[in-house]
């Protein structure tokens, strides 16, 4: 009788067509272990089967790129023989089920992706999205996720320097937890997962294997329904102290000449790590599963191959280096076991209790995974809302106060104060500004890191929204004085089998591609999370972009804090008062309408280059990019950060209605404060960049045209109150 | 009535604290500890006198607050 029934195949998330391909590749019926391996290797999470076709269209090359997508993380050249290694990855589904451990193990997983390549992690970033604040689950999820991110990151001793937190009803049943790590390595000491050398030992290090998260990778690729509670597999629990030991042990081992290839065991654990290593080196592997360090009694080969226990690595050593590696792992109190060897068979042979329990061809399984060209329909264009279509605010200052006290505009201090953002001693700019800035240890250089996405734009117009997400990180990085180098992307979408969702994906990729090309800002790593749907209701399309930029002289950076009283505020970039899909329209008029703003990529680049040159020249006292809430919100951010008043003055020649001018979300804009505005305006004219004086710093109050006066202290109190009050609720 | 509740990690869930206890006991010279698992003990003094009703209430407390039922089990002892 056959061990594999159609029900078992279906339970493994393999459809009929795919199962036919399994039979063809195997030349026989697989056993349960083999089927399990197919199932995780061909899950959306590991195989990118719906997204591959489109991801390939993104630009991934440039003189700064040392390694693009395909490895554990992307690698870029940052000069002085150093490289920055970074990636962003989602842990959405596990965080919804167990917010603390889900978020914690998300941080742990992305750290491993980075240090497995030889980098010491130096900065973490977290992009978090939750359901509406009034939803009964939201508070609990925020509390657990933030504590989990902090708990793991703080224990491991890596600063969390930037991130975002957003609320929207579309995330009620599917929160997003996207974690990014940036690491620092020597450019000539990068480690990859490419196995080589027949007979070389395959070594397991780290924690023992338990029955954690079996089928986590397939869960991450399935929609939730109301029965998800019942189907919940054992949640992975993170152990940050072991992770810290693993970082130090791996970096120490990397100093020796012992490693051929190294790969962390992430989703689909031992299966994906061993397959990926063997496949990229076109090798075979023989594993003796009796040697796998086990936490529990009676584990089956199926459980061992599919376990997602945390804090584990797989290493191919050079021959004869076992004792050296073992002594380093012993010193750090980590398990070490030789569990197999490389062969030239190009097959994965699994042995248990002396029997061969699994035998699979490697290349066909890893490379001939299904690739779908899913049907898609473009998102229909939405009617725009014009500046003249909105009511003039009765009091613009009061409108600003309401806006700055709203859930999505309020201060995130409550969140980032739970993260250690100063550990390692190299943090130059803390969270709360445009980008986090960390010094490249022992040098004058620094890295700027940020994450951003505006999902409501992506919903209204995926192409514009995709471009905007990339451009906004470019702007964040520029506003601190850094040169944007490359991005990582975390594509969070609904069910790709629905053509309108696939259309959102395709549109966002198109916009991202345009922006990356225009800004010389390639994609070097990324992650895709699909099926973020509950009961057929998908999340807003959320392509989160993580950007990294370089500051050559860390003395020449800008912050959002004014230098002194009497400085001029200069607005860089054109303002037509785009109010469609703006925060103002949503919060003040309760309308979520209109189209996303256009990103003029040529202007984006020109304005960015200009602002950067002014910061590098040391002319600028402070700088902030404009995004949600437009000019008014940017002024408020700066006044609050500076604890100093400011008066905004609308230039006489501006014809845009005042409310749209203040709150419109036109792209490619920055606000600069400067003592001598004349020379800046001259330089801007020479560079062909629009620049206008729109205000002056000083006093204790903020005043807007068409509005009353509010003290900065009151504005700050409103801005900082929402989050702690909500969480105390 | 007293309700005594033991909350323990489910079988198979990693217990970093238990692991640290086991490791430290070993380094203090206490040999022969094969495994340590730690949990928590909660004692409630409740006004309810009917055992069935008390059990129902305490179970609800465990489900809602005292245990994280995704990764933890609980057991309840009642004593008049």
Characteristic terms for this protein:
heterodimer, A: 729 residues, alpha+beta, seven-stranded mixed sheet, 23% strand, globular, B: 80 residues, Mth169, Chain: A, 2 helices, 35% helix, EC 6.3.5.3 (chain B)
Give a topology summary:
The complex is a heterodimer of chains A (729) and B (80).
Chain A: H1 6-11, H2 16-26, H3 32-41, H4 44-47, H5 52-55, E1 65-67, E2 74-77, E3 82-90, H6 92-97, H7 99-115, E4 120-130, H8 138-156, E5 160-167, E6 176-186, E7 201-206, H9 216-219, H10 228-231, H11 240-255, E8 259-264, H12 269-280, E9 284-288, H13 301-306, E10 312-317, H14 322-331, E11 335-343, E12 347-352, E13 355-361, H15 362-367, H16 396-404, H17 413-416, E14 427-429, E15 436-439, E16 446-452, H18 455-460, H19 462-479, E17 483-492, H20 499-519, E18 523-529, E19 533-534, E20 537-538, E21 542-551, E22 568-572, H21 583-589, H22 601-616, E23 622-625, H23 630-642, E24 646-648, H24 658-663, E25 670-674, H25 677-687, E26 691-697, E27 701-703, E28 709-711, H26 712-728
Parallel strand pairs in A: 4-5, 9-12, 17-18, 24-27
Antiparallel strand pairs in A: 1-2, 2-3, 3-6, 4-6, 7-10, 7-11, 8-10, 9-11, 12-13, 14-15, 15-16, 16-21, 17-21, 19-20, 22-25, 22-26, 23-25, 24-26, 27-28
Helix pairs in contact in A: 7-8, 7-11, 8-11, 11-14, 19-20, 19-22, 20-22
Chain B: E1 2-9, H1 16-27, E2 40-45, H2 51-66, E3 72-79
Antiparallel strand pairs in B: 1-2, 1-3
What does this molecule look like?
Chain A is 36% helix and 23% strand. Chain A is built from 26 helices and 28 strands. In chain A, the strands form 5 sheets. In chain A, strands 8-10-7-11-9-12-13 form a 7-stranded mixed beta sheet. The longest helix of chain A has 21 residues. Chain A is globular. The N and C termini of chain A lie far apart (59 Å). The relative contact order of chain A is 0.13. About 1% of the residues of chain A have low confidence. With 80 residues, chain B is of the alpha+beta class. Chain B is built from 2 helices and 3 strands; from the N terminus they run βαβαβ. The radius of gyration of chain B is 16 Å and the shape is elongated. The chains are: A alpha+beta (729), B alpha+beta (80). The interface between A and B is medium-sized, with 21 and 13 residues.
